[in-house]
Amino acid sequence: MLLTWIETVFVFLNLPEKSRYMLNFDNSFFDETIEYGFPVSEKMKRVRAADLEVLRVIDEVCMRNGIEYFADYGTLLGAVRHQGFIPWDDDVDIAMR
To answer: Which band of pLDDT confidence, cut at 50, 70 and 90, is reported for residue 26?
Structure first.
């Protein structure tokens, strides 16, 4: 089975399967970390959690309406270069057709 882009992100970040409800994050998700030599604060982790929740809703709407979307700009770069978020990036960039 081919995964959608957002499902791939969820698998990479070890998040629970997407559902119609808000995502649940283990408390350790919000622990401050060092990624590629850059400190990522609890606040940044909470921003990422919000980004993923917004993406979950976008994914649901797009799938329901047959709209193709994909990662773009810094989000695409992060997916390729960092296998996730760019450590200092606090938004998600997508494009639609």
So the answer is: confident
Rounded to 10 deg, the angle between the 42-65 and 5-12 helix axes is: 150
Say if CB 88 and CB 78 are below 8 A apart.
no
pLDDT, tens digit (0-9, with 9 covering 90-100), for 77-87? 998 999 889 99
What tokens appear for 30 in the block? 């919000």
* Cα pseudo-dihedral 60, 64, 66, 69, rounded to 10: -10
Strand ranges (E), the chain:
33-35, 38-40, 69-71, 94-96
* pLDDT, tens digit (0-9, with 9 covering 90-100), for 46-66: 999 989 888 888 888 888 889
Q: Is 41 left (phi over 0), alpha (psi -120 to 50) or beta?
A: beta
Instruction: Classify burial at 59, counting beta carbons within 10 Å of its beta carbon; exposed 0-12, middle 13-18, buried 19 or more.
Output: buried
